[in-house]
Write a structure and sequence with these properties.
Length: about 250
């Protein structure tokens, strides 16, 4: 997924797997992706019970770098997580929910760029049957029904922001999750084209700037060589004519 403005400005908390809802006992990896080469970033959390504590201070296991691993999650691990530096700088916050429900909605944990394609997945904790109907809701209104368990939003816009959930026939429903769309970035599909076009123009100008003087100097040297060759031939002809005249005399 393309980085959001949060990640481009300072530091970004990235969640793996990339979603905000998890079943009980699942494992979650939280990493601080630093774009400013700062040091001392730590993953911190705040739960509904209050209190802020960094990773490894009663929850999670700190790994190499600025990564925190939460294994065997519980609903009590639900809350807001973020990265914080030694200087008190903070990244974006991610709201993570650990649920006892039998269904979760998998959606991106971070805001998505406007124009990007976003796929939502409805997952059951136990797959007892493949003959299911999956229903997706936005702001508590049904928007899609299928048998694949996936729904893709092509070209996300601000109007696609909202609370989403899903349900499975005979299998329960998920909690709501917020899908955020960031309009400050251009559509991901057009950005590479613009960059490629500008690079091509720049390279063409460089070739022209370097190539034109070389071509002109080559032509000029060719003309000078031609004139010298003509002058030499004329001189040789005149010399031969003088010799002939002397013999005749």
């Amino acid at each position: 997924m393309q980085l959001t403005p949060f990640c481009l400005v300072l530091s970004c908390l990235q969640v793996s797997p990339d979603r905000s809802q998890f079943f009980r006992y699942e494992s979650i990896s939280l990493s601080c992706k630093d774009q400013m080469n700062s040091t001392g970033w730590k993953v911190k959390r705040k739960t509904s019970k209050g209190g802020v504590r960094p990773c490894s201070s009663g929850w999670g296991t700190a790994l190499s770098g600025s990564t925190c691993l939460i294994g065997n999650t519980y609903p009590s691990d639900s809350g807001v997580y973020w990265c914080e530096s030694l200087n008190g700088e903070r990244s974006n916050g991610v709201n993570i929910t650990i649920t006892d429900r039998t269904v979760v909605l998998e959606s991106p944990a971070l805001p998505v760029s406007e124009g990007a394609a976003v796929t939502l997945r409805c997952k059951a904790e136990k797959k007892n049957s493949t003959d299911h109907r999956f229903i997706f809701y936005k702001d508590d209104r049904s928007i899609s029904t299928n048998s694949t368990g996936e729904m893709t939003i092509h070209g996300a816009s601000k109007s696609d922001e909202g609370l989403y959930k899903c349900s499975i026939s005979g299998g329960g429903e998920s909690l709501f999750t917020w899908l955020a769309v960031d309009a400050s970035l251009p559509p991901s599909s057009s950005a590479p084209m613009a960059t490629s076009s500008s690079d091509s123009v720049f390279r063409l100008m460089c070739h022209l700037v370097v190539g034109i003087p070389y071509m002109l100097s080559t032509v000029l040297l060719g003309l000078i060589y031609r004139d010298r060759k003509r002058a030499q031939m004329v001189a040789e002809r005149r010399g031969s004519d003088d010799v002939i005249m002397e013999i005749v005399v």
